[in-house]
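job 3f2a | input accepted
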Amino acid sequence: MDYQHTLCFAYGNQATATLHATIQAKTRNGAIISGSKGYLVIDHVSEFNRIDVYTNDQEKIQTIQKDPAMTGYEFEFLQLAACLRQGKTSFDEVPPTFTQQVLHVTDRIRQQWQLVYPGEN
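job 3f2a | predicted structure (121 res):
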């Protein structure tokens, strides 16, 4: 694993995203997602406990707390169960093409970093 990295993304709709990650320092593991009407502050990227919703004027308008009974992939399992009941093999919110796009991006990053895992090539 790299000690630290920064990834910058630019999308066709003029949206941008920046990801900073490091194992060299104690940092917050949260995220801020900004939009045209406000922004979200997420306390932990991969497993949130709380999301605060703000207007562009920095007024907090909502706090979303994770149900304490939820411990991991419950949302994914619930969605999977709903798809199976409907006879679907994928769901509209995250179609297979999106997964392929994510894999393409991660493959390009690895190529630029010249990162090859054991067993490849």
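job 3f2a | Strands lie at 4-10, 16-22, 31-34, 38-42, 50-55, 60-65.
job 3f2a | closed
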